[in-house]
Design goal:
With 301 residues, this protein is an alpha/beta fold. Helix 2 links the parallel strand 1 and strand 2. The longest helix is centred in the C-terminal third of the chain and has 25 residues. Helix 4 packs parallel to helix 5. The chain has an eight-stranded mixed beta sheet, sandwiched between helices. Helix content is 42%, strand content 13%. It has a single domain, classed as NAD(P)-binding Rossmann-like Domain (Rossmann fold). Keywords: Oxidoreductase. This is Short-chain dehydrogenase/reductase.
C-alpha cells in the first residue's frame, strides 16, 4: 500500500513541468510481458499509442486497443502488426461519453483474459465549459473522472487472478500533478457531483476544472486501494509529465493552442518518454504503489 507518510508536493505548475524534464527518464527494456493481455484506452495517438508500441516490444501476447474510432484503431494496429507479427491485436470500440458504450466494453472484456488495464483517455477543455448532451455533465468532469471511474470499477473483477498462482492484475489510471494543485472550492458542496458541472469561462478556470478532475482521480485510487486487496489488483495513478504530440489541448482556443505549442517546445517530454511512466506504473512498480500516485518515478500519497 502506498505510504501516506511521504511528504506531499507543493510546487507551482511551471515548477512541476521543469522537474518533469529534469528527472532522468527510465526505460525498462528487460521487462517481459509474455503471456499477458493488456488494454489501453485512447491508444490511437499520443502517449497511448507510444505505450502500445512499448508494451508490444516487451513481449506482450495480446493488446486490446480501445478507441472511439475503430478505423483509427485499425490503422494503429496495422502498423504494430508489421513489427510484431506474432502478437494478437484487437481493436474494440469505446466511447467515454457513453455509459452504454463503457458498459458494453466492460462486458466484452469479461469474456477474455485481462492482466493489465491502462486508462489513458483524458481531455482538457477549452476556455468555455460544455455540458455533454448524453450524460448531462461537463465534458472534462465526465471523461476524466465519471466515465473513467465507472470503467475502472467495472474492470476490477475482470482483472482479479483466476487461480491462486497468478499474479495480481494491474489497473493504472493516468493522472496529473495538476491534481495536487486543485483549489477544490466546491469540496463541501452537497451534493458534490452537480457542483462539478458549474459553468466556467477562461483559460485559468478551465485549468482548474482539469486539475479538479485529476484530484478526484487521486481520491478514487486511494479509496480503491483501501477497498481492493493488492493481492487481487494493484491499482495506481501516474503523472506522465507535460508532453508534446498529444491531443490533450485540442479544444483550446487558437491563442491557447499557440501558448501550448510554445510551452511544449521549452519543457515537454516526447510521447515515448511519457509512455515509459505508464510501463513503470503498470508493469514495474509493485504493491508499494497500490492506492498511490506515481510522479517522477516515485510513489507519493
Amino acid at each position: 500500500m502506498a505510504s501516506m507518510n511521504v511528504p506531499p508536493i507543493h510546487d507551482s505548475v511551471l515548477k512541476l513541468m521543469l522537474r518533469g524534464i529534469n528527472v532522468p527518464n527510465n526505460t525498462y527494456r528487460d521487462v517481459t510481458l509474455a503471456g499477458k493481455t493488456a488494454l489501453i484506452t485512447g491508444s490511437n495517438s499520443g502517449i497511448g499509442l507510444a505505450c502500445a508500441k512499448l508494451l508490444s516490444g516487451l513481449g506482450l501476447s495480446r493488446l486490446i486497443i480501445a478507441v472511439r474510432s475503430t478505423q483509427k484503431g485499425e490503422d494503429v494496429a496495422s502498423v504494430i502488426r508489421k513489427v510484431h507479427a506474432n502478437m494478437n491485436i484487437d481493436v474494440w470500440e469505446l466511447d467515454m461519453l457513453s455509459y452504454p458504450s463503457i458498459q458494453a466494453f466492460a462486458q466484452r472484456c469479461a469474456t477474455t483474459r485481462l492482466d493489465i488495464a491502462i486508462l489513458n483517455v483524458g481531455i482538457a477543455s477549452g476556455s468555455v465549459s460544455k455540458i455533454d448532451d448524453s450524460t448531462g455533465h461537463e465534458g472534462t468532469f465526465q471523461i476524466n473522472y465519471l466515465s473513467t471511474a465507472l470503467l475502472a470499477i467495472l474492470l476490477l473483477p475482470i482483472l482479479k487472478p483466476k487461480t491462486p498462482t497468478e499474479k495480481p492484475g494491474r489497473l493504472t489510471i493516468v493522472g496529473s500533478g495538476m491534481g495536487l494543485l486543485s483549489k477544490f472550492d466546491n469540496i463541501n458542496a452537497t451534493p458534490l457531483i452537480p457542483s462539478c458541472n458549474a459553468p466556467f469561462t477562461g483559460f485559468v478556470a478551465a485549468g482548474e476544472r482539469y486539475a479538479l478532475s485529476k484530484t478526484l482521480i487521486m481520491m478514487l485510487v486511494k479509496k480503491l486501494g483501501e477497498t481492493i486487496s493488492a493481492d487481487d489488483v494493484i491499482i495506481n495513478t501516474v503523472e506522465p509529465g507535460f508532453t508534446s504530440g498529444t491531443g490533450l489541448h485540442r479544444d483550446y482556443s487558437a491563442t491557447g493552442k499557440v501558448a501550448m505549442v510554445l510551452l511544449k517546445k521549452l519543457v515537454s517530454r516526447t510521447p515515448e518518454q511519457a509512455a515509459w511512466t505508464y510501463v513503470d506504473a503498470a508493469a514495474v512498480k509493485g504493491e508499494e504503489s497500490h492506492g498511490g500516485f506515481i510522479m517522477f518515478w516515485k510513489v507519493y500519497p
